[in-house]
Amino acid sequence: MLHVRAKIAEDGGIVLPVEYLQALGIQVGDEIILRVEDGVLRILTPHQAIEFAQELVRHYIPEERSLSDELIEERRQEN
Questions:
Q1: pLDDT (tens digit per residue) in 6-24
Q2: Can you list the positions of beta strands (E) in the chain?
Q3: Cα(57)–Cα(16) distance, rounded to whole angstroms?
Q4: Does position 50 have pLDDT exceeding 90, yes or no?
Q5: Which residues have a Cβ under 8 Å from the Cβ of 68 and sit 6 or more positions away?
Q6: E strand map for 12-56
Q7: What is the value of pTM for the model shown?
Q8: In degrees to the nearest 10, what's the CA dihedral of 41, 46, 50, 51?
Q9: 21 near 2, Cβ under 8 Å?
Q10: 3-state secondary structure at position 20
């Protein structure tokens, strides 16, 4: 995809070209997550952010372990 120049509006807003929105699967009014990594701005959908977080956790939690099951069990024991 081509690089395009954009300007920052007085209110800090940025207008993204329609082609970029389509490529990202984003529509007007959708919520996005902004992230700065090594001085680069990344735009993620909430779904992409969740996948990113899950991938990070996968490196530390064995596949056979279910954190959600453990949380449910802890909640049951509290009652």
A1: 889 999 999 888 888 998 8
A2: 33-37, 40-44
A3: 31
A4: yes
A5: none
A6: 33-37, 40-44
A7: 0.63
A8: -70
A9: no
A10: helix
d(CA 29, CA 53): 24
The amino acid at residue 52 is F
Residue 1, pLDDT score:
61
Per the CB < 8 A criterion, the answer to whether 34 and 26 are in contact is no
Predicted pLDDT of residue 58: 86
Are the beta carbons of 23 and 36 closer than 8 angstroms? no
- What's the pLDDT tens digit per position in 51-64? 999 898 888 988 88
- Can you tell me the distance from the alpha carbon of 72 to that of 37, in angstroms, rounded to the nearest whole number? 34
